[in-house]
Amino acid sequence: MSWLHEFPSLGSETLSAMRRAIDGSFRSFTRAYGEPLERLFDPLRDFLLFSERLLTQSPWPIVVGVIALIAWLASRSWKIVAGTVLTLLLIGLFGMWDDTMKTISMIFVCTLVALALGLPIGVAMSRWDRLQKLISPSLDVMQTMPSFVYLIPVVMLLGIGRVPGLIAVVIYAIPPVIRFTNLGIRLVNKDLLEAADAFGASTWQKMSKVQLPLALPTIMAGVNQTIMLSLAMVVIASMIGVQGLGQPVLKAISNQYFTLGVLNGLAIVGIAIIFDRVSQAYGKRLQRHLEVVHQ
What we know:
Elements: H1 12-40, H2 42-57, H3 60-75, H4 78-93, H5 97-127, H6 129-144, H7 147-158, H8 162-173, H9 175-186, H10 190-198, H11 203-237, H12 246-255, H13 258-293
C-alpha cells in the first residue's frame, strides 16, 4: 500500500539522465549557434547604446524639457507635466540621474521591440481563431513563468550584458500588448464592420481605418502594462549586467544598504508613475476623441 503514500514518479537515475540529455543538447546548440545569434542582435545593441548615450550625455535641462513636452502632448494635463518634472528633479537631486536615464533608455527600447513584435501578432490572432488557440497557451506560460527563469537560457545563449537583459525583459513584458491588441480588435462592433463592407472597404482599409482606431484605447492599456512589466523586470535583469537603477538595488540587497535600496526603489516607482499616468491619460484622450467622432 506504499503507492498510496508515495506519489509514483520517475526514478532519480531516469530524471538525472533526462536532465543531462536536455542540458547537453542546449549546450551543444549554444556552442554551435551562440556566436551567430550574438551578431544577429548587434543592431539592437547599437540602438540601445545610442539611446543610452543620447539620454546620459545630453544636457539635463534639455532632457527634462523633452520629457515634459512628451508628457504634455500625450496627456494635455499640467498636473501630470508638473509631477513629471518634479519627479525628475528629485531623482537628479539625489544623485540617480545617470542610472535613471539608462533605465528609461532600456524601457524605451524594450517597449519599441515589444510593440514591433506584439502588435502584428495580436492583429494576426484577432483574424485567425486557430492562431489564437495556438498562441494563447504560450502567452499563459510566458506570464506565469517565474521571471528569474527567463535569465537562464538567455545567459547560456548570449552571455551577460545589455542585450541578453533586453531580450529577457521583452519576453517577460510582451504578452499584455499581444492580448490587448487581440481583444481590442475583437471587441469592435460588428455593425461598423458590416457598414465598412457595404461601402466597399478592403480588408486593409477595414483594419487601418476602422478596427485599429477603435481598438486603440484598449491597445494603449496593453502598452501601459508592457511598460510596467518592463520596469518590474529591470531590477531582476540587473543580475545579468543590465545597467540602470536595478544595479544599485541589487547592491543594496547584497550589502544591506537600506537607504541606497529605498532611494533607487523610489526612483523606479517615480518612473513607473510617470509612464503610467502619461499612457493612461493618452488612452483616455483617444477614447474621448473616438466617442466624439463616432457620435
